[in-house]
Specification:
A hairpin with a 5-residue loop joins strand 1 and strand 2. Helix content is about 50%, strand content about 5%. It has a two-stranded antiparallel sheet with strand order 1-2. By secondary structure, the protein is mainly alpha-helical. It is elongated. It has one domain: Orthogonal Bundle (Arc Repressor Mutant, subunit A), CATH 1.10.10.
Length: about 170
């Protein structure tokens, strides 16, 4: 598993969307994150195809998360951006290995792969966005993200608007 610039830039774009109470254009995300706009557009298309981001067209169009931040795992994001996350090529779904039957290391690689997937699945987008101070009980600036108990009303309201003009 090699994480590339695609993951770095894609996660930064998703973080911008998660922090924003409004839809954002690719240009706004690119400017805010200091990223190349053409690359941001390609990443947003990948994330739309994976069902993690929604896009709307029109004057008020742009991009927003398709689900609440606590419902999106880092594993989902990385797989949407990079594809398979296997730590070695022999574990990739489309790889046929001549040594698979007698391989002495495959079992350990499978265990490592499982632990990586479990760890990435256990971390939500919200987990990364919530400041450490909040977790420790220290006061922190207000977050535009809904708290767990609020049921992400802001995201639901935005989702209902986006459903009417979705292009993904």
């Amino acid at each position: 598993m090699i994480l590339t610039r695609r993951s770095d830039y894609g996660l930064r774009a998703v973080f911008a969307l998660a922090r924003s109470p409004h839809v954002l254009s690719a240009k706004q995300i690119a400017q805010e994150q200091n990223l190349p706009i053409a690359f941001v557009k390609k990443l947003l298309q990948k994330l739309c195809r994976a069902g993690l981001v929604r896009a709307t067209v029109g004057k008020q169009g742009g991009y927003a998360l398709a689900r609440a931040p606590q419902e999106i795992s880092i594993r989902e994001l990385l797989e949407a951006l990079e594809g398979d996350l296997a730590p070695v090529s022999c574990l990739a779904p489309d790889h046929l290995c001549d040594l698979a039957a007698g391989c002495t290391t495959r079992r350990i690689w499978e265990q490592i792969d499982q632990k990586i997937h479990e760890a990435l699945e256990s971390i939500s987008l919200r987990d990364i966005l919530v400041p450490d101070a909040e977790a420790s009980g220290s006061p922190s600036p207000p977050s535009p993200l809904p708290s767990e108990g609020e049921g992400s009303a802001g995201v639901r309201g935005l989702s209902s608007v986006l459903e009417h003009a979705s292009i993904c």
